[in-house]
Amino acid sequence: MTGNSDNILEINSIEVMYDSVISALHDVSLNVPKGKIVALLGGNGAGKSTTLKSISTMLAAERGKVTKGSIVYDGTEVKNQNPYEMVTLGMVQVLEGRRCFGHLTVEENIIAGAYSRKLSKSQIKDELEKIYGYFNRLRDRRKSQAGFTSGGEQQMIAVARAMMAKPKMLLLDEPSMGLAPQLVAEIFNIVKELNEKEGVSILLAEQNTNVALRNADYGYIIETGHVMLHGSADELLNDEKVKELYLGISKEGRKNFRDVLREEETKKLA
Amino acid sequence: MTEVLFFIEVVVAGLLAGTMYSLVALGFVLIYKASSTFNFAQGAMVFFAVLAFVGFMELGLSFPVSFVVTVLLMVLVGFCTERLVLNPLMNQSEDTLLMATIGLGFVLEGLAQAAWGVEVRRLDLGIGDFPIEWIIDVFGLFVSALDVTAGIVAAVLIIGLALLFKYTRMGLGLRAVADDPGAASSIGIPLKNIMLLVWSAAGVVALVAGMMWGARAGVQFALVDLALKALPVLIIGGFSSIPGAIIGGLIIGATEKVLEVYLGPFFGGAIEGWAPYVLAIFFLLYRPEGLFGEKIIRRV
After folding, report:
1. pLDDT at position A254, please?
2. Which of B186, B195, B239, B298 to probe by mutation at the A interface, max A CB count within 10 Å?
3. B172, A111: Cβ pair inside 8 Å?
4. Which of B42, B71, B148, B273 is deepest in the core (most CB within 10 A)?
5. Where does A7-238 sit in CATH, by number?
């Protein structure tokens, strides 16, 4: 295995194909240092979710396959594992769109997260208490059917459920999706707290560039399956191009990095 | 007075016979919950299980030993189904799975007959299909001992399964998978084990249902078709609900007997064969999710 042991996750130029024909990622490389939050940014269809799913091996369920490159998680090469094995290794993904078990209660949802750990009843109780410490709002709603809770609560359930598996690394797919700004802030605060207190490393895919970079240590920007730019969160927040293209401080006509690069290219030639 | 007593008798006989439908329907519900597919092989499983049970008895094994061996055999069938049929078809559409269960049904029917032969067998559970005397004495009702036994067995099985799903780790896993298999697998619930559990449970339910039916009608190929009576039961009760399977079975049992006795003569008899399907059509028109089917929860 290559690289240094300070990274919990190393992705080396992977290519991903769906159904053996549709290419979704072309050349994505990224590192997640231990105990850090890394943001994966980009628009719809950029390849954020595909990247996360190739790490958690959820890709197989959608007939996708990593065809080139390598993924090394915590010293183990991710190849033919299934999601269950990845969870036992401490890698848990929170899927896009929350995906709570609607007919189960909030508490049952959270307990389901501990399934792979085979805990006793009293251990589960202790773990639940710890989780409710981070997600206070869920404690009041523990007996409600999850399908009837609000979008913000469902996102919290999804994160809390994943935390019950005691992950070393959490993959969050668009936690801000469809939520009001205060709720997004609340959820990111919890995520940050989990990162600091539980030491869990986090790779989060987001369209909300501003919020993501304010909470992350490092960021990668991907477009159409390529990493276009990466750097520390502060660097990216102050980068002119990022400001223009992702933070909405825009000049006319330029829509993405490809256009910017093309423009610079033509300038050089002229 | 005798009129009323006779009506009660018909209803009670219907309800008790209905528990047998409930038992078969229960097998369907278990699999539907886990893989959202209608298991066409359930009838074949009933036939396979009870034929194997009778076969082991004929080999000279005692009743309890035959029962345990058959239960183990059904777990093995569940295991092979998971390995050879479900696992390779993982992530395929529900229609593909449905077709696979039809194929599985043929395989099980063929295997059972190849192993044990095709003749109709008698299954003696030691419980006669005769009225119980003390009930005649006390209430003046003629109620079959076999019907009562079937009712009690069904009740025990159902309560057991309900407790299993509500209070055990595996049960929680199953309910999670039933809600969202993708999310369940993302948090480390192994679908394989859940499928194995469900198919084994469905196999055991099939065995019990087969024994009850076999004791009444003989262990024969017709059990496969009898199992399809579970279809109207499920339409009425809802495909995903265990209480629904029970109550659907009771409703079908009672109405078909009552209709047979009181309306049958006007149609030239034997309407219990099709009356349940007519009832099912009304349910499809007015309450397609069934009485207890889980409505899809949508936030608005």
Report:
1. 57
2. B186
3. yes
4. B42
5. 3.40.50.300
